[in-house]
Design a protein that fits this description.
Layout (H helix, E strand, L loop, with lengths): L2 H22 L9 H16 L6 E5 L2 E4 L3 E4 L4 E4 L6 E2 L4 H9 L5
Antiparallel strand pairs: 1-2, 2-3, 3-4, 4-5
Helix pairs in contact: 1-2
């Protein structure tokens, strides 16, 4: 079983937790979004893992380090260079982000 298969299993479990959370909290105006954020993180990680040429490592909570250079947020559409403090925005499309900024950097 590959890591991508395990991520798909985790995505199914996270979506089930999100569904249960929505059922429990349908009557509340304000409640935590941890289950929903878990689904978003897993979906983005799956989209990044589909690019086999990338070396993806855990960096901080909700962040991953790609190719030992790029720090990418799994919730927000933001990225930065490692050891720099300037955050940049990227489009929703992860393929566009990878091809433009990460793989485009090698050219």
């Amino acid at each position: 079983m590959t890591l991508l298969d395990l991520l798909y299993i985790e995505l199914d479990a996270a979506e089930e937790r999100r569904r249960i959370s929505e059922e429990r909290n349908y009557h509340k105006d304000v409640y935590g979004r941890s289950a929903e954020k878990s689904v978003e993180r897993t979906k983005k990680l799956i989209a990044l893992r589909k690019h086999e040429s990338l070396d993806i490592q855990a960096y901080n909570s909700g962040l991953v380090l790609i190719n030992d250079k790029f720090v990418v947020s799994l919730i927000n559409n933001k990225w930065r260079i490692k050891n720099k403090n300037k955050w940049y925005l990227h489009k929703e499309d992860v393929d566009h982000f990878v091809n433009t900024y990460i793989l485009g950097d090698k050219k």
